[in-house]
Amino acid sequence: MDHPTARQVAALESGLNHFNPKLRAHNLTELAALADKGAIALAPETDVANMHCHTFFSFDAYGYSPSALAWHARRRGFRLLGIVDFDVLDGVDEFLHACELVGMRGSAGIETRVFIPEFAAREINSPGEPGVCYHMGIGFTSSGAPVEAAAALTDLWRRSARRNRAIIERINAYLTPVAIDYDQDVLPLTPAGNPTERHILLAYTRAVERSLADPIAFWSDKLELPLDQVAALADDMPRLHNLLRARLMKRGGVGYAPPGPDSFPAVEAFHAFVVQCGAIPCAAWLDGVSAGEQAEGELLELLIAKGVAALNIIPDRNWNIADTKLRRAKLKNLYDVVWLAQDLDLPLNIGTELNSAGQKLIDDFDAPELALVRAAFLDGAYFVYGHTVLQRALELGYQSAWARAQLPSRRERNAFYTALGRLAAPDCAGRAALRKLDPHMTPDEMIAEVRRGR
Fold this sequence. Notes:
Layout: H1 6-15, H2 21-36, E1 46-53, H3 66-76, E2 78-86, H4 92-102, E3 105-115, E4 132-138, H5 147-175, H6 182-186, H7 197-211, H8 215-223, H9 227-231, H10 237-249, H11 267-276, E5 280-285, H12 291-294, H13 296-305, E6 310-313, H14 324-343, E7 348-350, H15 374-394, H16 401-406, H17 410-423, H18 428-435, H19 443-453
Parallel strand pairs: 1-2, 2-3, 5-6, 6-7
Antiparallel strand pairs: 3-4, 4-5
């Protein structure tokens, strides 16, 4: 296929999202080869990053696999990209391999919810759930966990499955005569058996369409909303799903059950798992509005003492807001948390999520509102890539004994891995060059050697 047609390229790209991993791998290899020959144009690299993209191993609103994300980012000229999936590491190996194949600086992470007893009376970043916190680990280098961490990874998946089954049981009772089966209707919607609430919603809407003559009347009755309001959403499935999620699954909905201290792992247990995998515990910030996030300094100091070494932010929802007064308030909160993170030596992991329709493939790095924080965003992206590539090459990442001995402070480690991330080539040859480094070098010697080899 020396000169593929647009239709042939589109077919190869579509196959990147197939649940068959062999087909994804084959199509990515074909696309990369065509790009190498100049048969597919790649946009010039731009200094932009999206380090928080969910894949279809949890839920991606556009159906993207790890391979698809790496390819589309490279084709559009992104310089850095990171995936983050809920409760699993299933996409890590595929994604990092895909990044090397196409020349993308990549990182991989996991997101879950944890319980923080010290904030049990304060809402943090999980609306309406005091003490419960969306939380992350970044910089993983394998889909597998070491022996000492395997049980914790399995526990995350099992907790998620239990919550899903309980939600379905409660919603089935309310939506009678419509009901779905977790194994038959939900699991087939996933490539590796890790559904989210959004998969469950898709199964319910399909069941209603399949079994009822008037779905609009059904949802109007069950949601206690006027027919015309539901009818207006009939051709806008993302908005309908958001409404169903709010009415059925979130606080006050029939499928909702208030979490207790044992519903989610303790933050210390999650951190232990992340560190055992050689990755970096990462706090997550929403918008600075909740009682817990109004005490963000106190919260981050607490989490740093428990092992947090980075902070995740979703910028777009904190400045790209139509209401002028709300935009001004949230933008101030965004600036404040960035300055706080810098004072606390916490690199930033930023991105757009991609787990809800309408979210951007990349943040608008040229927006005037982001001018003050753009450099901090990019430094954080290079930091986690630098850790990732050195951990993969020599197991000398952020948590290594070498890093702790040579770079005892977070500030020193942040500076080293950020500098390395800016220098290290993202392809297979780049990692091979790092493998040739003497692991007894000092950080300065290593940076100098990598710079000489460019």
